[in-house]
Amino acid sequence: MATARLVVGLMSGTSLDGIDAVLLSVRGSGPRTKFQCVASIEDPFPRGLKRLLVKNSVPETSRVDDIARLNFLLGELYAEAVRKLVRKANIALSDLALIGSHGQTIHHLPTPRSMFGRKIRATLQIGDPSVIATLTGVTTVGDFRVADVAAGGQGAPLVPYFDWLVFRSRSSNRLLVNIGGIANITVLPKNAAPDDVTAFDTGPGNMVVDSLMHEFYGKPFDQSGKTAASGVVSLDLFDRMVRHPYLRARPPKSTGREEFGDVFVHNLLRSGRRYDREDIVATASQFTAFAVYDGYRRFVAKRMLVDEVIVSGGGARNRFFIDELRRYFSGARVRLVDEFGISSDAKEAVCFAILAHETIAGHPGNLPGVTGAQKRVVLGKICRP
Is there a contact between 205 and 313 (Cβ–Cβ < 8 Å)? Predict the structure, then answer.
């Protein structure tokens, strides 16, 4: 059997709350990939960084000098998270074979727009992998989304290839639901080959609820969904939310703060001025769960009836989300990814460790049926220390 390699995965998502770092022991590659989680940490961002990232994620308030500095600052924060992780695991940086870093998305433009006679899609993740490699002395793979976009894809979601590697089943039709800042699903029919996998972003995950909790209570998120559970869903507000055109758009599709960020929250607050705060949080939380089910109902159910729903991401800790998913998917078993030995919070970090390992092996990491790319491509930039 191939020698195990120690690989770190780093993820900071659309929730903008910090860095998930995970240490894996990895053997093999491709369909023969086997891994074990050795250690993981959650490293919160410094106070005020989320606000600065949000400011620089929209054209109206972004500054090129801020973005340039944030690109290096995040690289340093990622490198520090790696150092904290290896200290926890009681190993040296020199024991690491590889780091895979998703970076921090500050703008994602998957819909092509004409520019000097060309149709241009774009995506921008900052936290340069060259900074991480230089500061840690470990080869780092980053900027995973760019190659897929260059090949005509949306650049997202990329987790489905990992989902296929790890969660494909001979006996069950599975739906992998990840609730980060944005929620997405991966569709895995039983006995799925890579070309059988479909996936797409369904809409907001924690993003809208987190913004409301900060606005109303000065809190970063709704702990265990308790605020949502104390409120009553407003049918009027809910009806307005479910009319969002993104829900009707056909896959392949991906979304982010551009659709469900500050402007969306501002409009929700304006429409909900006569409602109690907890009712607005409950309604936004209901929308997250509904959008997941609605994506399944519209684009999946006619060809695959789901047997198991496997939930990951920070939203897996929100009991309101899970209870509503169990209600919507009443004919399926709803499980947490923790039952498979992967922390709900760390799944995406695990994914990018594995994708980095696949890149070094020369294996493509995208699925054209998911992203809309013209072909499979090897993802990411390999940065040597």
Answer: yes
What is the DSSP secondary-structure string of 188-240?
E-TT--GGG-EEEEEEESSHHHHHHHHHHHS-SS-GGGHHHHHS---HHHHHH
Domains assigned to the chain: 5-155+346-383 (3.30.420.40), 159-331 (3.30.420.40)
Q: Could you read off the pLDDT of 2-56 as tens digits, one per residue?
A: 689 999 999 997 778 899 999 999 999 999 999 999 999 999 999 999 999 999 9
94 DSSP assignment:
G
Q: Is residue 22 exposed (0-12), middle (13-18) or buried (19+ Cβ within 10 Å)?
A: buried
Among 267, 286, 260, 271, CA closest to 237: 271
Q: How far apart are CA 194 and CA 180, in angstroms?
A: 24
Backbone angles phi, psi at 152, to 5 degrees: 90, 10
157-188: b or e for each residue (b if 16 or more CB lie within 10 Å)?
bbbbbbbbbbbbeeebbbbbbbbbbbbbbbbb
Contact, 220 vs 44, CB < 8 A?
A: no
1, 24, 96, 99, 379 from 4: Cα distances, Å: 9, 9, 11, 15, 22
Alpha carbon distance 152, 154 (integer Å): 7
Q: Which two three-digit tokens encode residue 87? A: 């200290």
Which residue has tokens 């819909």?
111
What span, in angstroms and rounded, lies between the C-alpha atoms of 182 and 151? 23
Closest CA to 251 of 187, 312, 315, 189: 187
